[in-house]
Amino acid sequence: MSDEWEPKIVGFLCNWCCYAGADMAGTSRMHYPANIRVIRVMCSSRINAEMIIKAFQTGADAVFIGGCHPGDCHYVDGNYRTKKRIDLLKRLIEHIGIEPERLRLEWISAAEGEEFAKTMKELRDDIKKLGPSPLREIAREAI
Amino acid sequence: MEDEVRKRIAEMLDSGEVTAVIALKDVLGMTTPCVFKKGDDLSSLRLSPHYPLATLAMKMHKMDPEYKIAILCRGCDERALLEMAKRNQIDMDKLSIIGIACDEETAKDCNCSVPYPSCEDLIGEKLEELELGDAFEDYKRMSTAEKLEFWKKQFEKCNKCYGCRNICQMCFCKDCELENELWLKKGRLPPDFPVYHLIRAFHLAGKCVGCGECESACPAGIPLMTINRLLRDDMKELFDYVVGNTEEVNPLYTKEEF
Ligand code: SF4
Ligand code: SF4
Ligand code: FES
Is the terminal CB of chain A with fewer CB neighbours within 10 Å at N or C? Predict the structure, then answer.
C-alpha cells in the first residue's frame, strides 16, 4: 500500500439507475477505485444545492451525482431539473474559487456497470490531478 | 420629480382609485417607508434613497387582498412585484404602480441594466442605452485560488446577523434553509465557509432583482452583489432567463431541457 493521497468523493446515486449500475459493477467484480462514498437517493433531483455545498464544506474533494438517462427518470422529468441545477451550481462554486470539475453529473443506467466503473476511474484520476479540495484545510467537523 | 409624484399620489387618493399609497417620507431628517392616505400632507414625501417597498405591498396584500394600494416603484421594485406575483404572493391587478425612473448615477451604482419599470406613465427620464461596462473585469481575471482567498476573507467577516436575508424582497419562504441546522449549526461564527452565502446566493438565482439592499444592509461590508450579479449573468447565459420582465417561470423550477 502506498501512502499516496487519494481523493474523497461523495457520490449521490439515483436508486433506479446509477445505484443499480454501481451494484452491477460490484456483482460482476469489476474493479474501480474505492474513493467514492455512496449515498443512495430516490432520484437525482432529490439532491439540492445545500447537500452538495455541505459535502464540499466538510471536506469532500469531489461530488458525483449519478442519474437516469434523459427520458428515463422514474419521476418523469427529475433529471432535467437536476441538470439545470448542477450547471448553475458549477458556475457558483467556480465564482468563489472551487474548481467546477469537482462537481460531476453523469447519466448511468442500471445496465451500465462498466460505464460506472470507468467513470469512477476517470473522476478519481481527474481529481488526483487537481489535488485536494482547497476547502479541506478550513473544513470543520460535520455537525 | 417629487412634485410630479405628489400630484400623481393626490390624484389617485382623491379619485378613490386607491385607498393607500406606499412610498417614502422624511421623518426627523430620516427617510422611512410610509403609507399615505387621503388627506395626508404629502410635503414630506421623498423618493430616495431606494428602499424595498415591494415587501410592504406584499404584506398589506396578504392582510387584506381586496385593499387597493398604489406603490412607488422603481425598476427593481417592479421586478420584485412581478416575481412575487409569479409565486402567488401578490395580485398585480389589485396594485397600481407609480413608476419612477432612476438617474444615471443610481443605475450605474447598482449595475442595473433596466433602471425603470415598464409602465407607460413613467415619471423621470428612461435610461435605455446605458453603458454599464463589465463590472467584474478585475474579478474575472483572478485565478481560482485568488478567488477563494478573496471570498474566505470576505465571508469570515460575516456575523450571521441575517440582515441580508431580512431586507431581501425576494426572501419570503416560511421556513428558511439558513436556519436549518442540517446545514448551519447554531451559534457558530463565522458561519461555516461557504455554506451560508452559497445557499443564499443559489436560492436567489433567477429571483434576485438586483436591488442591492442586501449589500447595503450588510454591517460587515461583504460585496454580496458581486455573486448575485454573476449568477444573474449565468442565468441569462445558461437558460436565457431574465428576472422580472417575462412571464416565464424560473427555469430551475421547470421540467424543460436546456
Ligand atoms: S439578494 Fe440582495 S439584491 Fe437580490 S433581491 Fe435580495 S436584497 Fe435585492
Ligand atoms: S448581512 Fe452581512 S454580516 Fe449579516 S448575515 Fe448577511 S452577509 Fe453576514
Ligand atoms: S429516478 Fe433516476 S434521475 Fe430521477
Answer: N
Which residues in chain B (135-154) have CB-CB distances under 8 A to chain A? 144-152
Q: Residue A51: inside a domain, yes or no?
A: yes
CATH number at residue A111: 3.40.50
Is B198 in contact with A49 (Cβ distance < 8 A)? yes
B14 three-class SS: helix
| Residues in B touching A50 (Cβ below 8 Å) | 177, 180, 182-183, 195, 199
Nine-digit cell at B241? 432567463
Candidate from A83, A87, A97 with C-beta closest to B151: A97
Q: How many domains does the structure of chain A reveal? A: 1
Which residue, chain included where needed, has cell 426627523? B28
Alpha-carbon distance of B178 to B170, in angstroms, equals 15
d(CA B220, CA B151): 13
C-alpha span between A83 and B255 (Å, rounded): 10
Which triple of cell numbers denotes residue B102? 432612476
User: What pLDDT, on a 0 to 100 scale, did the predictor assign at position B15?
Assistant: 92
Find, among A45, A102, A37, the residue nearest to A79 by Cα: A45
In a domain, A141, yes or no: no
HEC per residue, B178-231: HHCCCCCCCCCCCCCCCHHHHHHHHHCCCCCCCCCHHHHHCCCCCCHHHHHHHH
Any domain includes A24: yes
| This prediction's pTM | 0.90
Alpha-carbon distance of A126 to A69, in angstroms, equals 23
ipTM field? 0.91
Q: How many CB atoms lie within 10 A of CB A138?
A: 15
Q: Which residues are registered as beta bridge partners of B73?
A: B99
Ranges of chain A with pLDDT below 70? 1-2, 140-143
Is residue B173 lining ligand 2, measured as CB closer than 6 Å?
no
Residue contacts between A and B (CB atoms, under 8 Å)? 96
- Give, to the nearest 10 degrees, the angle between helix B195-203 and helix B224-239: 40
User: Which residues form the domain of A44?
Assistant: 9-134
Residue A143's pLDDT is: 41
CB neighbours of residue A97 within 10 Å = 20
